[in-house]
Amino acid sequence: MKSYVAVLYSIILRDKRRVVMTDLRAMAERLGYHAPRTLVATGNIVFDAPEQPIADIEAEMESTFAVTFGRHVDIIARAGEDWRKLAAGNPFPAESEADPTRVHVRVMRSPLHSDVLEMFRGHCSRGERMEIVGGDLWVDFGGKASESKLLGVLTTKRLGIGTFRNWNTVRVLRDMLPD
């Protein structure tokens, strides 16, 4: 058995309905995943499963999610040790500790290259800083991400499949993994 983390791009369904985490855990159990645990109502799930390629987990979860909930949602998965590396690679540790909601990581399905940063530097109007670590995009928004013009341009169309998580979420998911 191996531990995995999966993060959903969205938990919003039709008519402003949201995915209920008990339903997400039940879906994981139907897939044969063991001990699924979710982080409040955030669209994040940690589980144990036989070792398999990440792409297989993502495809299986996405297709089952579409059948279960009636909507396709991108799901990005990482092996537990890779999630720990992601957390350890935070290039803004002091800022994260001062305010864990100001630092976010866009967890990517396919790794980004450092040349991507230049495409977005012009949108950093409030002192935002960006780094690519292990193919994922880390952003110190310098305050509330929702108040930054940068957030609106960091889209799937421009970057590829991925989803943002703030430092609080990254850290808690890391801590949910077994030792």
Summarize this entry quickly.
Helix content is 36%, strand content 25%.
| Helical stretch tally | 8
Secondary structural class: alpha+beta
Order of adjacent strands in the largest pleated sheet: 2-3-1-4
Strand content: 15-25%
**How many beta-strand elements?**
8
Radius of gyration: 16 Å
Could you characterize the architecture of this molecule?
The chain has 179 residues and is an alpha+beta fold. The protein has two domains: 2-83, 2-Layer Sandwich (Alpha-Beta Plaits), CATH 3.30.70; 89-167. Helix content is 36%, strand content 25%. It has eight helices and eight strands; from the N terminus they run E-H-E-E-H-E-H-H-E-H-E-E-H-H-E-H. The protein starts with a strand and ends with a helix.
